[in-house]
Amino acid sequence: MSNTHYNSFSQDWCLTECIFFKVIAAANRALAAVSVYFLNSQNKRSTKYYVVKNSKYVPLLFRRKVLQLSPGIDYPGNVKWELALALLAAWVLCYFAIFKGCKWTGKVLYFTALFPYLLLTILLIRGLTLPGAAEGLKFYLYPDFSKLGNSKIWIDAVTQIFFTYGLALGAIVALGSYNKYHNSIVKQASFICILDSSTSFFAGFIVFSFIGFMAKEQGQPVSKVAESGPGLLFRVYPSGLLQLQGTAFWSALFFFTIILIGIDSQFCTMEGFFTAIIDEWPMFLRKKYRREIFILIICIISYLIGLSTVTEGGLYVFQVFDYYGASGWVLLWLLFFECIAISWCYGLDKWFENLKDMLGYYPSAWWRFCWKYACPAVCFGVTIFTLVQYKGATLPNYTFPVWADVVGWLIAMSSMLWVPGYAIYLYCVTPGTVKEVCTVHFRHILAGAVVCSLAVVRTTKLT
Fold it and tell me: What parts of the sequence cross the membrane (predicted)?
């Protein structure tokens, strides 16, 4: 290693190790793949991979080379062309996967949804064979119940469940509309919940087996190594992969899995959004080539908005979007009014009659209790709990300015205010006296407002 070369960015902070970095970066908003190669400059034909004993290099590489992170959100900086091209590639893939409709998207999803399970299984087998994996799994399987008093834990859990199941985003409802009329939706709903929860639980074994290995290598407790959010994918995990033989293979396999999962989520959310919009204006958008053109326009707009997250200050912008735009309070708000619109306004008795017509039998009383009481109560309770202990968006070693939190709340309100806003609009355009509108037409007004808000929050999530 004494004769290895330095490049321009390694001189600034790698003064104690003679290393040469080669970076491969790819991103879809926050999706960036990083591989760090340690080359023997004396014999480049027989490249060697050297173990990084100091894990500080990966976080610094991620921040300074891949992101070229600015000091704060006040300094957006320039667009990173590598990340911009990767973002463009993601949207191009998304467009060609969905522009022909749900049947074409379903064929694509056979690969993007099923193939990651094979990759996850390979990673799990490798992770369980690593030294220290048992400690990581122990940390994973033995919860710390004292954390339940932290409101952030609850809002993060709600956000995770909502995104995993597609709740309050409309994607499941929109995709389900393509099923046959007499399809067993109760069985499918149960299957989705079991499969999604099992997948999350299964993936946890992979994550924490590697984290346990990293903790052992670094001589630190697992709690110090574990990190949530983008940091887990792009700082913590690469540090662990670098310790393995065949670093390039395991890094490529891991990030290819992450990209497939991200693209798969993008396909589903986009398809749900377009289904709702096209069903709202079918006479206009279902004519020849209009669907394809409309989808292309939305993808272009989404890409342009997404460019704000691949600048030098893009990580801060991404965090504001992620924390306020389509998570936590927004989804709780929309799901609360979804339940109210169906159970209390449309009427649960009428809804059960519709289900009997489709299924041939009435669903159990358990579903009635959940839809009418449990779900609205949980949404309302968690919202109040988190607002009482409210804290703004944060990043490690960085506090967002007040104006960033204000912008974040404006983004959140752009989805939330459509419920009362559209209800007021429908109230104004609905004929009849005040009493007639409030009693007879209120259920239709609220239902329309919820549908409108769902479309807005899906758009926010896509960008």
Answer: 81-99, 108-133, 153-178, 190-215, 242-263, 293-318, 330-348, 369-388, 408-428, 440-457
